[in-house]
């Protein structure tokens, strides 16, 4: 006649143990989803935002919208769409060993066409970046059509190619070895149709110089 839980039917015990295991598993998953330590992405993004905020402190209104993030070895690259009380701009911020470098897209953001092309040369690499719009302008009709980009193919004059998956992306960051001359860029949709080519933006690849630097 002791206290505690009493089971009249032994068949109930396996179900009770199963319920306990499920509860423990859910609890464990919950702890894993909320780690106490910040991950590297959060730390490096904080460095990037801090560096950018300092640089553009003269603007009363500024907002940084993250379009794309890419990790390459010990590089953390962030593509931001910055809106201020002056004009919008695309910014590439590269964080390496707690040091932030950032580059601004040349001229105004690509609006009419579905994409733009900017290039940064850094430590023997070429970094291409810019926006990917949801629609593109058709010069022959003056109308716009959806892009639904899924793939970008970079072709270089030495015959090499690089294929980048961009399905659902708002921007792209592509890193290639060396400083090869760009021959063509072809953008495809999910149906495998060509949506845009490099010639659509007049073969314009803007060389970007460093506009800011911050070491923690």
From TrEMBL:
Residues annotated as transmembrane: 12-30
Domain of life: Bacteria
UniProt keyword annotation of Transmembrane present: yes
Keywords, sorted A to Z: Membrane, Transmembrane, Transmembrane helix
Protein's recorded name: Lipoprotein
